[in-house]
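Practice problem: predict the structure.
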Amino acid sequence: MKLIESEEDFTFQIITSFKEILKLEKEFSILEETYNNTSLQVEIGRKELELGEITEINYLEMEIALSDMWIILGKKKLEKEKMLFSFSRLLTLKPDTLLSVKGEINTQYNGFTENNPDLFIRASREKSTSYMEIILAREQAGENLKAVKKQNIPDIKADCSLSMSGEVFPLTEPGLDISVTFSFSRPGFPGSLSTGISREEYERTRTVTAEAKPFSALENLYAEDTALVALERSAWAVEDYRINIEFTIREMLHEIEAGKKELEILREKLKVSERKYLIEELQLKLGEIKRIDFIESSIDLSKERITILNSISDLYQKEINLMKLCGIREIIKTGERIIK
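Answer:
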């Protein structure tokens, strides 16, 4: 069970790392496109400055915006390279290995989980190794209590021997020895009691022997109480797990549904922003807005696209965390939904 769980965790790490690389590549592509567009606008602004159509302040604002974009682009490139190194390490590749990653994030991703708490609660009780472990702990505590209670039951040992004796063969005088020993292991007063009878020719013998060790084995004096408390605690741990896991599952599903709704709103907002950008592009041509305002709108638009990518990534992460919590081992199939 633990081996399968470890394989699932490793699979998830692979998918997550690959997804992050593709997300960073997409972010870099968006930022690079914005930087190129900004660079083009700054070049136009330089010609406008030479012609005296704009002030030097207007032009400097554009250059500052371009410098900011260059810094952001450089940080994103470094972030992507670091992720590639981490991915290589995860795959145990040589440090000088050059990776060629192909694929892209599914920007239309809307999640794959159903808002069905009962389904996930049932799965958590049937497949979760954490739940199985506390169930086994409760069963073990029950067995321990049974073992401790057996201390009050004595161990019984019986011996019997038969002998023949006489002065000449064949031997004609039978002899018989029978004994029974009761051993008590009760903490504080362990001991034993033996009784026996023997017969040899016409002689009869009866013996009774008792042995006790008062105040010994005191470390086990409260063993039964301790075992009972352990059983009650383990039973409570099972019930506590059931209650907490149900609350956690419902909370996670609520967050997932909120993430889906947020993603829907962000996409609608992006559509509005894209229409606004096209209008501003026309206004710029007509001289109704400043070029720096158009540049800032272009940058804001790229930020909105990146926000959607991050929202998609977060939603997928929450869904996978829910699957792992419930012991659902189908993580590898989910990669096909978010990666194209």
